[in-house]
Amino acid sequence: MAHNDEIQSTISVETIQPTERDALLPQIPDPTNSENQPNPVQRRRANIQFVALCWTLFLAGWNDGTTGPLLPRIQKVYGVDFTLVSLLFVFACIGFLIGALSNIVLDPRYGFGKVIVLGTVFQVIGYSIEATAPPFPVFILGYAINGLGMALQDAQANGFVASLRDDPETKMGILHAAYGAGALCSPIVATQFAQLPHWSFHYLTSCGVAFLNLILLIAVFRLKTQDECLAQIGLPPAEEGDTETSQFRQVFSLKAVHLLAFFILLAVGVEVTIGAGWTVTYIINVRGGGPSSGYISSGFYAGLMIGRVALLWVNRKIGERRALFIYSFLCIGLQLVVWLVPSLVVGAVAICIIGILQGPMYPIAMNHAGRILPRWLLTGSIGWIAGCGQAGSALLPFITGAVASKSGIEVLQPLLVAMMVFMTFIWAIVPNSVQKGRQIDVCS
């Protein structure tokens, strides 16, 4: 009897006219419908939100561009060798990893607005410690606190932009061009402070930039969750996922997350090792550069900033995945030029071009994460990926410094070439297709 009722129900549904049947089905909003498009007030608010996040990434670039030009002065002031001064990168790495892990727990509990502001508070504290030029153990502790704050902000900013619906690829490129702008400005300022008696006052300047960021984030986002902030600009919240399993466990069960995290670790590590790590020391010691060699670091980051915007059309034309392979191979070739051609000018130009080609890599990887990872895990996943990137910005310069302390700074170039090759290999095995289901690329 129940079977007959099912048949009758099926027949009755099929005999309904299409227009009537459509009225009975759940209605899915049509994004092309003008009624679903943000109004002028929402678009203006969206622009303000985006500018605030760009300033956050400007601060991230400022932070990463600071250390390289100051390294020789820090070594002289504290009387430490390559290995000991590399503890700056180790403690920053520890802070980044703690921040990346904490973000996965803090984000679902407290939300976007509170977590990103908390990250800025940590950064203000870290810079305040460093500005006083305290004893070396306390100085490197400031780097750890700063790293914790950077990881929280980086995770939230990238996760927010990756959740946008209106051309997120371009916005991600512009967001990280702001990072390049910060990394361009910071070495210019740091190079000047490195030659002054009060060299640590550079960190006081950094504290001012971070404090401005704190005020801006509170004023714009008002400690609201990401869904609340998206609603303010006319966007729907992210869909719900598996609520029975902790977000921490879900994120770490995704193989794609770990591959992207490892790729970003290498990409950012290479980027910071070249632009803000040991290249300035290499140019001074091996190529005979003077005290103004820190400006080469600014040249690299100028290229990074330009590449993230100027190459957007290339990414669209040939596809982001293919474009990243091309950029990687060209970077390897140019790094060989820096290594094998004993010319200060040629090396400086090659480093700037590497910056242009390296620029799109990070935003391309973040865009790829937004395409292949579940929406409800995106912020947590990107937090871990970005945190690993920040860890790479500390870990690889530390490894370089430790090796250089035994074998000389000349080892910098072969190490960079090896890192670039390995980075390209990891990108080749990152999943390329949109995965179905709640669990994708689950680790066995």
Structure description:
- There is one protein chain.
- The two termini are 46 Å apart.
- The protein has 444 residues and is an all-alpha fold.
- It has two domains: 194 residues, MFS general substrate transporter like domains (Growth Hormone, Chain: A, Up-down Bundle), CATH 1.20.1250; 187 residues, MFS general substrate transporter like domains (Growth Hormone, Chain: A), CATH 1.20.1250.
- The relative contact order is 0.15.
- α3 runs antiparallel to α9 and α5 runs antiparallel to α19.
- The longest helix has 39 residues.
Tell me about the largest β-sheet: none
Count the domains.
2
Query: Which percent bin holds the helix content?
Result: over 70%
Please give the oligomerization state of what you see.
single chain
CATH-derived architecture of the largest domain: Up-down Bundle
Fold-level CATH name of the largest domain: Growth Hormone, Chain: A
Number of E strands: 0
Strand content: under 5%
How many helix segments?
20
* Element-level helix/strand string: HHHHHHHHHHHHHHHHHHHH
**CATH class category label of the largest domain:** Mainly Alpha
Classification by helices and strands: mainly alpha
C-alpha end-to-end distance: 46 Å
| Mean pLDDT metric | 82
Radius of gyration: 24 Å
What is the CATH superfamily classification of the largest domain?
MFS general substrate transporter like domains
Q: Sum up the overall morphology in one term.
A: globular
Low-confidence stretches: 5-34, 435-444
